[in-house]
Amino acid sequence: MHIKLKFICMIICVSLLASCQQQRLEPVALAPEDMCSFCRMAISEKRYAAQLSDSEGQVFKFDDIGCMANFMQRNDIDGKSVARFVMDFDERIWIKAEDAYYVESSEVTTPMNGGVIAFTTQPKAQQAAEKFHGKIQRFGEVFQ
Ligand SMILES: [Zn+2]
């Protein structure tokens, strides 16, 4: 009987932990007063935004995908960051940074001149790459 109780408690604990973690992996909505965690500028244009959550539940928001790349490099945050999202340039919805298709072009003017925009699908990224004479990149190339 006692062991059974312990077992039930364990199941409850594990599922609580799991739901907690899942919540943390959801992107956070941008607020008008949000500032970029890297360059401290206001995040005025949503379509270039990015965000990152660390293992302590802290969320860092960025006005430019390039700012998140710089932030990750400078802070050596790889082991601590648990979720990364970028904004879809067209639809202005958060997408997982690992799943996004990026277009890098000097003809794209992003807030901090990172020159990188993100898309949910490859065809959309392809269109943008042709329009801006840029090249398509994946997560590993943008966030090395
Ligand atoms: Zn910035």
What does this structure look like?
It is built from 4 helices and 7 strands, in the order αββαββββαβα. The protein is globular and about 65 Å long. The chain has 144 residues and is of the alpha+beta class. A hairpin with a 6-residue loop joins β3 (81-87) and β4. The protein has helices at 2-24, 65-75, 122-131, 139-142, and strands at residues 50-54, 59-62, 81-87, 94-96, 101-104, 116-119, 135-137. The chain has one domain. The strands form 2 sheets. The chain has a 4-stranded antiparallel β-sheet. Strands 6-5-7 form a 3-stranded antiparallel β-sheet. 31% of the residues are buried. The structure holds zinc ion.
Summarize the structure.
The protein is 33% helix and 21% strand. With 144 residues, the protein is α+β, with helices and mostly antiparallel strands. Strands 2-1-3-4 form a 4-stranded antiparallel β-sheet. Strands 6-5-7 form a 3-stranded antiparallel β-sheet.
Please give the alpha-carbon distance between the first and last residues.
53 Å
In this entry the ligands are: zinc ion
Task: Figure out the total of helices.
Answer: 4
- Strand residues, percent: 15-25%
| Anisotropy-based shape | globular
Given helix and strand content, the structural type is: alpha+beta
Quaternary form? single chain
Using only CA atoms, what is the Rg?
18 Å
Estimated helix fraction: 25-40%
Helix and strand succession?
HEEHEEEEHEH
Q: Calculate the mean pLDDT score and round it.
A: 88
Q: How many domain modules?
A: 1
E-strand count: 7
Biggest sheet descriptor: 4 strands, antiparallel
| Strand arrangement in the largest pleated sheet | 2-1-3-4
Catalogue the unreliable spans: none
